[in-house]
Amino acid sequence: MSNRLLTLLRASRDIQQTQRLDREAMLAVQERRWRAMVRHALNVSPFYRRRLAGLDPEHCALSDIPPLTKPELLEHWDEIVADPRLQSAPMEKYVADPSNWSRLFHNRWMVCRSSGTTGLAITFPQPVEALDWMHAAHYVRNGTSANEPNRARWYPGRPRQRLVSIACMQTPCASSGIYNTRPWVGDLFLKHHLLDVGTPWPEMIEQLNRIQPQVLAAFASVLSCLARAQLDGQLHLDFSGPRACIFSGGDGLTPGIRALCRKAFGIEPLNGYGSTETTTVARQLRGTDHLMLMEDLVVYEPVDEHERPVAEGELSHHALVTPLINRDVPLLRYRISDRARPGPIQPGWPFRTLIEVLGRTAMTFTFRVPEPRRVNGVDLMRAWYDDTRVVEYQLRQLSPSVLHVAFIPQPGEDGAALAAELSADLRALLDEAGCRTVRCDVVPVPDLEKHPLSGKVERFIPLNEE
Fold first, then answer.
1. Which SS3 state, helix, strand or coil, does residue 232 take?
2. CATH of the domain at 171
3. Rounded CA gap, 165 and 179, in Å?
4. Given a cut of 60, is residue 99 above it in pLDDT?
5. CA of 28: how far to CAs of 25, 298, 334, in Å?
6. Angle 266-267-270 from CA coordinates, rounded to 5°
């Protein structure tokens, strides 16, 4: 543990130094790190040696490196990982045993499995060093305002805030693995309580009322349910303290959920953005309405369908990420299907912002009218994304020609009137896309169906025709 604590402290110091740099100096640090990752990949990976043959890692541009897709990563996994213990067969065998989910693989790696919402699930290891950097970044960049980092000093006698994390414990996912595999790290800064998202609702309410967290972390869809419970008088949480906070991550934090939490708890959740493969990508600072990229830990490239960078304010088709800390699974320009809108540099920081992350390119419906027509779910709901009258929504394709849309109206809103308005907008968009024969049913509901394992609400559910 002492060595791990030293790594955590060194990461905190490095992060503090980097975030004090100007933009140009920070980008120089980032470049040194991605070039070191390229050299490392060429040294340890037969796959990269073939793929990048002839590339000069000292002088190439990052864009000279061909993007890596998830199917390619899965196909060539054993030739990409830097340690033979991480080959697919032994790792899959390890993670198939639920008793291992709270342990480190070979006392070194947190192994998690994604939910597969993009079509392909992946089992992925994160070394403890990468987790240390993630913890350090979130602690240091959690100041009382966007204008300064967290200046609070850690020491053993310092009173710790009560944190409740509501995470999925039915699968080996990152949301619970981060806490289960190394609980002592979280306990350095906060008095931590982990609740399973699958806990029966009355028991969940009872535990939250008993613990009275000052910090709450949960999926956005869970926060929506908790906010309605607070407004209904079932839940009695107090977030009026100066450092009280609600964190969201794992699924989409809609403006409607933000507004509902503000009404119920007096504060809005702070959003986080990451993935199984990258841990943290960006986080929201207090007093802002957007995400700030962790560009000293990951290179994030929002691009169009031809892999060209998109301009500030333009919605990307997908993104390419290069994590800079995890050397055991080197990912160079790894393609993720998230659609994001890049923003300007965060004032007072050297990092770029993301105005919003709307969804994934993979969330595309294929309708047959009778010829196939592809329509992206984000494009269908884009006009409603900022409408706080809708708390959250779910588009589910029931057949090649039927789309079912369920939504939760904001308390006090006329659900039937909203349904009629949303139905008219979707009808116009479907007609414009050549899907005039597609039936679209829109209904207000009290709650949305959650994924049976992850506990998240999937916003867009295309038809699985396999």
1. helix
2. 3.40.50.12780
3. 9
4. yes
5. 5, 13, 21
6. 165
